[in-house]
Design a protein that fits this description.
- The chain has about 150 residues and is mainly alpha-helical.
- Strands 1-3-2 form a three-stranded antiparallel beta sheet.
- Strand 2 and strand 3 form a beta hairpin.
- It is globular.
């Protein structure tokens, strides 16, 4: 077996003009890694409709484990995508909402959804071949609602 040479993703031999694109792939890859974590897109989708409490998010998403949902919300808050507002009342409670950065990301996600719908990325016959059990099959997938309004400003 012949070892293939290691390729540095920051260099290219495919001609001029492609190196800047390669450098840009690093932030794209990081964004995709963040978005592909369980429940992340579902959380952003739900918050695009407005402020939500933890329990509402958990109910809307479906089979989200409390610990996982809590971790994901903390990650999104650290990324600056959502805002956590503690309401001082008896008993105190917490509301989550999108930040400007989160709203921008939701617009981008909606653009990807529009592209997928336009180019029939997910035709009816493909659904059975895909693993759609992540949200318990309750139909609350962001991809299941093409008529969902775009995020509010």
């Amino acid at each position: 077996m012949v070892d293939e040479p290691l390729v540095d993703p920051n260099t290219t031999d495919s001609g001029e003009g492609s190196e800047p694109l390669r450098r840009e792939l690093c932030p794209v890859s990081r964004a995709i890694c963040m978005l592909e974590k369980k429940w992340t897109i579902h959380i952003l989708y739900e918050l695009s409709a407005g402020k939500r409490r933890f329990c509402h998010l958990q109910d809307a998403i479906g089979n989200a484990n409390s610990r996982t949902l809590s971790e994901r919300l903390k990650e999104l808050e650290l990324q600056g995508l959502i805002h956590r507002d503690v309401i001082q009342s008896i008993p105190p409670w917490v509301e989550y909402s999108l930040t400007e950065k989160g709203t921008d990301l939701c617009r981008l996600i909606e653009g990807v959804a529009d592209w997928a719908r336009k180019w029939s990325m997910f035709k009816e016959e493909c659904w059975s071949a895909m693993d759609l059990t992540e949200n318990g099959g309750n139909g609350s997938s962001p991809c299941a609602a093409p008529d969902r309004p775009t995020p509010r400003e």
